[in-house]
Amino acid sequence: VIHTPIGGNGAERADVCVIGSGGGGAVAAAELASAGRSVVVLEQGPFWTSADFTQREDQMLPRLFEEAGMRQTVDGGVSILQGRSVGGSTVHNLCYAFRTPEPILRMWRDEHGLASLTPESLEPSFRRVEAGLRVKPIREDEVNTLNRRIRSGAEKLGYSGFVTHHNREGCVKSGYCILGCSYDAKQSMLVTYVPRAHAAGARIFPQVRADRIEAEGGRVRRVLASSLDRDGQVRGSIEVTAPVVVLAAGAVNSPDLLLRSGIANSSGQVGRNLHLHPSVMVAGFWDEPIHAYRGIPQSYYVDEFIDLEREPHTGYVLMPIAGFPVLTAVNTPGFGRAHFQQMRDFSKMGGLLVLLHDRSAGSVENGSSSGRPRIEYALDPADRRQLGRGVRHCAQLLFAAGARRVVVPYLPEPVVLGPGDDLTSLRDEIDVGQAPIASTHPQSTCRMGGDPARAVVNDHGECFDVAGLFVADMSVFPTSLGAPPQITTAALADRTAHHILQRWSELSA
Amino acid sequence: LRWAGCTAALTTLAQLHPLTAFGQTPVSGDAPAARFFDANQTEMLTQIMERIVDSGLPDAPRVRDTQAVASVDSLCRGLDPSISAPLPLLLGAFEYAPCVLDFTFTRFSRMSDVQKDASLEAWRTSRLPLRRLAFLGVRNLCFFGWYAQPETWPLIGYRGPLIDGGVS
């Protein structure tokens, strides 16, 4: 269903050129193509299908992730996992399906001049994307051993939490969501919006990297791109001329492309305000094997430590997590026999993530080569304290859930705790470099707002500086979202697509 | 794995001690062919990996008997050159760091296992952020290669992929 990558030079004309086929780009492409617009989608990653998803980390990490899963901040302090294939990060995400929290929308309206972002105005988009992704509650029998134990611990401690919604259909509970679903049960963009876009006539080009967006007279004109082989080597060039361009390459690559293009940055905000939802995993070990990597990885969600109504800028959530051997080994400190002492009990291990609703703001700048932006991020003192408290609560909850040993992954020396150990001895703060920190939710680097001096795009995702150039990915979030971003990303992209359709005669003139 | 940040330091090291001077026993003829790393670099990576993944279990497979190093090689071949290009220099740095930085006057590859562990520990706990970062990168590559091997999964109780007949 996908166009063969171009080996030589080529030119395309379209009504709309969409850059990126992930959680935002695929939605925009499908909505626009379904309405009759001619759409070209450029995706720098390859096209893989469930037949390629081998459930092996050595094969799937290089296939599905930017920089083979090794993307990091410039100081190495935060690992950033982002998708790099048709379907983007939705191919490897864990399917939490939350609407944008109302207090966050209110804060965006009140503090960022986005008066039109009301629950009512977003309702049609939420409904469409929830239907498109087949969002539904996770059934009780789908909650796996680890998540059941975490829920039990949360209930003992009186923590607020709930079983979430997800976007899976016919799940076989293999647990390999993060390596791509071999059963096409995960309703990622790969099996929902991308086929829908293609069926509606969108021309989808995998392994084509957008190198530059060109504008003339304040209007977007064309996209210059390179076709790549599977090793990422340039094999040809393609020029797409279109009156509308939807940039949806993610909150790292989108600002990188705008900066390389030298456009849309009169505010100086392109690449700024990077939020990451930084997370730290604390490992718990039970007496008996729980094989936490089997079943739906994340179904329970602890929201005891985030109160967006009272404080929309801060807080953290706790989420169960289980990894496969490579990811677990990489996230376990040390080496040699001390490291193996933890890995030996892999089957008895289950993790709990503290995921921070961060106020800290980093940046994305052009790096040494195209596709390798320079990412900087530091935690401010308040976020360092939040992360420290969150780790302590993870340890407390793991013990309440029956764990017999908890390993807090401080660097360079982890702390191993047993039941009854004094948790107040744990660090009050965690800074970058003091524990393995990971991010799967980069956001806010082309932020939306009402003031062109403080924002890159307006409330419909259109760049203030360049007519016809829209951004439709997590980079438009004005602040950290404080919740899993899949539905918000898709809904805002849907909203942007419908806005484009409403203004089509003007935009295409 | 911010390899690029280490390039300047590693280049300096490599100029002092060209990689061609590794001079260790090449990989045996039965070992998987490595195409990103040359034979000496492959041997160096093998020796580092042997210590990084040491379990102390007598029945654990030997790194040399698995495809672990070949997996790392394959990964590196697919990486953006700006990430992978400094890796051979980094391996050279591991070989000679004991002489240059830790004053042990012995190359890594000529050390006993205990000495090798001490050398790696010096990398892990270095006061130099770049050195710690370089260690983390090599350590993670070793774990990537090692724990991707099905022979290692019984050691940790991992049941393996379901599509290959693993137990649910």
Task: Describe the structure in your own words.
- Chain A has 509 residues and is of the alpha/beta class.
- In chain A, 26% of the residues lie in helices and 21% in strands.
- In chain A, strands 8-3-2-12-22 form a five-stranded parallel sheet, covered by helices on one side.
- The mean pLDDT of chain A is 96.
- By secondary structure, chain B is an all-alpha fold.
- Chain B contains eight helices and no strands.
- The radius of gyration of chain B is 16 Å and the shape is globular.
- Classes of the chains: A alpha/beta (509), B mainly alpha (168).
- Chains A and B meet through helix 2, helix 8, helix 9 and strand 17 of A and helix 3, helix 4, helix 6, helix 7 and helix 8 of B.
SSE run of chain B? HHHHHHHH
How would a crystallographer describe the biggest sheet of chain B?
none
How much strand of chain A?
A: 15-25%
Name the poorly predicted regions of chain B: 1-34
User: Which two chains touch over the largest interface?
Assistant: A-B, 50 and 51 residues
Low-confidence sequence ranges of chain A: none
Distance between the termini of chain A: 31 Å
Global structural class of chain B: mainly alpha
The best one-word shape of chain A is: globular
**Rg calculated over all Cα atoms of chain B:** 16 Å
Q: How many strand elements of chain A?
A: 22
How many helices of chain A in DSSP terms? Answer: 12
The proportion of residues forming helix of chain B, as a percent range, comes to 40-55%
Oligomer: heterodimer
What spatial form of chain B do the alpha-carbon principal axes imply?
A: globular
Q: What proportion strand of chain B? A: under 5%
Please state the CA-atom Rg of chain A, rounded to the nearest Å: 22 Å
User: Largest sheet of chain A at a glance?
Assistant: 5 strands, parallel
